């Protein structure tokens, strides 16, 4: 790993983040969150892009200061080109291009989904990085997929959701329970106090390694409507058990396909990535399979699970070593295939 110093910029959704990496060691990883979306129960794209415009300069300045480097020490700038919210991506892309031009350093575009997976190669992400080939369950508010990772930039999506992402299902079910946005972490917290076997919800029957999460959302909605007609305080009286039962169902759906893929492809190296990889029940299920199925498991540090610039900087470092630079004519893209 080279000693180049790279600035990574992430702005795909509602977190403005900047990080400095040297080799595969993170010197700083700063993020500004946008609390405003809580009022609307979801991310409002126009508000997100405005907040990025306000946050990006202070966040980048803070990341450089915390890394204790001079601006002219930066070897290249990596940025999230996509996928994500176009307005948000445009802010990060435009800023990265301008700064790269002013510092006269190369520009490196990064695929956000690749970055979640390659975050495992950051020095302090795991005690040891995964060995190729490995399976990575990449699961967040916008994406749910099983990826066969053959090399740093040789990845194949072998299964994905045909409708909602798992994180989206957590948030939509949270809305049914009248929980704040984002509901995933709240459900995780309340589930710790509940009985995961209290209620049963439908699981989809999907082909191959694909997922579907719209069914569980509908199953929960109809169940709640029926129970609330009988007892208006049903949700309040059973909230912990409801959260525990929903969480158990979603994690079982996720793990069943991952276990199937690992067995059929004979892969023992298994990782998780993305925002939902912070979920305590998913982490425990991975730990259980380490003991039960002999998997070598890779669970990233919490700060590398949600959208963060450290993972962008990591991919940019790998591309920098390969001389894979981006033309200044490049533009942000809402859809960006793995």
From TrEMBL:
EC number: 2.3.1.234
Residues that hold substrate according to the record: 138-142, 171, 184, 188, 279
Annotated binding of Fe cation, by residue: 112, 116, 307
Annotated InterPro entries: ATPase_NBD, Gcp-like_dom, KAE1/TsaD, Peptidase_M22_CS, TsaD
Pfam families: TsaD
Domain of life: Bacteria
Cofactor note as given: Binds 1 Fe(2+) ion per subunit.
Example of a GO biological process term: tRNA threonylcarbamoyladenosine modification
First-listed, main subcellular location of the protein, grouped into a coarse class: cytoplasm
SUPFAM superfamilies membership: Actin-like ATPase domain (SSF53067)
PROSITE patterns attached to this UniProt entry: GLYCOPROTEASE
GO cellular component terms listed in the entry, alphabetical order: cytoplasm
Gcp-like domain: residues covered: 26-313
Keywords: Acyltransferase, Cytoplasm, Iron, Metal-binding, Transferase, tRNA processing
Cofactors, names only: Fe(2+)
Subcellular location: Cytoplasm
Chemical reaction(s) catalysed: L-threonylcarbamoyladenylate + adenosine(37) in tRNA = N(6)-L-threonylcarbamoyladenosine(37) in tRNA + AMP + H(+)
GO MF annotation: an example: tRNA N(6)-L-threonylcarbamoyladenine synthase activity
Entry-linked PANTHER family: TRNA N6-ADENOSINE THREONYLCARBAMOYLTRANSFERASE, TRNA N6-ADENOSINE THREONYLCARBAMOYLTRANSFERASE, MITOCHONDRIAL
Recorded family membership: Belongs to the KAE1 / TsaD family.
Cited function: Required for the formation of a threonylcarbamoyl group on adenosine at position 37 (t(6)A37) in tRNAs that read codons beginning with adenine. Is involved in the transfer of the threonylcarbamoyl moiety of threonylcarbamoyl-AMP (TC-AMP) to the N6 group of A37, together with TsaE and TsaB. TsaD likely plays a direct catalytic role in this reaction.
Protein name: tRNA N6-adenosine threonylcarbamoyltransferase
Species of the source: Chryseobacterium oleae
Gene for this chain: tsaD
